Amino acid sequence: MAKIRFDKIYFDVSDEGYANILFLSNTQQYSLYFDGINFSKVKEVNLLLKKLSLFNYDYTSSNLYVERITQDFDIYFIEINNGDIFQIYSMMNDENDVQKLIVFDKKMKNYSAPSGISVYEAAVERANEGEEVVL
Question: Which residues contact 112 (CB under 8 A, 6 or more apart)?
């Protein structure tokens, strides 16, 4: 997969429980969008921006890229060039299945997972075990 540059991330969960994520690029011809089921490259983002909110993330680096997207069953991993890993997974909320988003960063190396490694290292392993998503 070719690296996809982005400047900002927009996020929301739809009424149906699907995570909607837009990796907005101000410099490329397209941005990366996840609609809760599929990833796609989109050129027109104005309607999406009206439905989504700016995601609280560290945008200080001027060269942020999505390097790779993998899938392990129904869990998606989005690897960023700064080492962060975004994980999208489903969780039951009352009687509904809702997608959640968590960001693993290298600072999480202090938190242990049940396997004896850090939660960050566990996320890296799971991302590496997944199948690459083709856009």
Answer: 118, 119
Work out the number of other CB atoms within 10 angstroms of the CB of residue 117: 14
Contact criterion met (CB below 8 Å) for 14 and 36: yes
| Torsion-angle region of 17 (φ positive above 0: left; ψ -120 to 50: alpha; else: beta) | left
pLDDT digit string, tens, across residues 52-85: 999 999 998 879 999 999 999 999 999 999 999 9
pTM of this structure? 0.92
Contact 65, 88 (CB under 8 A): no
C-alpha span between 103 and 85 (Å, rounded) = 6
Instruction: Decide: 87 and 95 in contact? Cβ < 8 Å.
Output: no
